[in-house]
Amino acid sequence: MDAKLAFWTLALLNMAGVVAFAVRGVRAIRRNEVAVHHRSMLMAGGLIVLFLVSYLVKVATLGGENLALWSAAHRYNLYIHESFVVTMLLAGLTGLVLARRFTASRRVTGNPDDPPADPVAVRRHRLAGKLAVIASVMGFLTACGILAGMISRAG
């Protein structure tokens, strides 16, 4: 296994972690465990930041992939994967920004004297979160196909 293949294998494991933390966060908020939800989503975001930094280091040290060796189907899968990743990033950042609007609400603090959360912000946060989680799952699935193609081309 060469260094690039090792990197992408670790990147796939990282993406699995993103999905796992996101699913944990969704389950936690359904149980009204706001703190667990918050930590889980921040962990998922942290893993994304870790990947982005490691990807920059990988490109600087190992270079990019030679897409000329990839079949058209594998390239299309890559482009679809990248679309899911961009969607995940934008929706996740939107969810984070919207969550900041109700961090002092009674649902978050547990204090009945605090104001209720703005229902519009909560609805938008929930929609952005659903989109981010769905995109992360789809990104993981398409990443599995990408890695399988890399392994098959490596022989």
Low-confidence stretches: none
Number of helices in the DSSP assignment: 5
What is the makeup of the main sheet?
A: none
Mean pLDDT comes to 95
Q: What share of residues are in beta strands? A: under 5%
Give the C-alpha Rg.
Answer: 18 Å
Percent helix among the residues? over 70%
Describe it.
- With 155 residues, the protein is mostly helical.
- It has five helices and no strands.
- Helix 1 runs antiparallel to helix 5.
- It is elongated and about 65 Å long.
- The termini are close together.
SSE blueprint:
Blueprint lengths: L2 H28 L3 H29 L9 H28 L6 H4 L9 H36 L1
Concise structural overview:
Helix content is 81%, strand content 0%. It has five helices and no strands.
Which descriptors would you attach to this protein?
mainly alpha, 155 residues, 5 helices, elongated, 81% helix
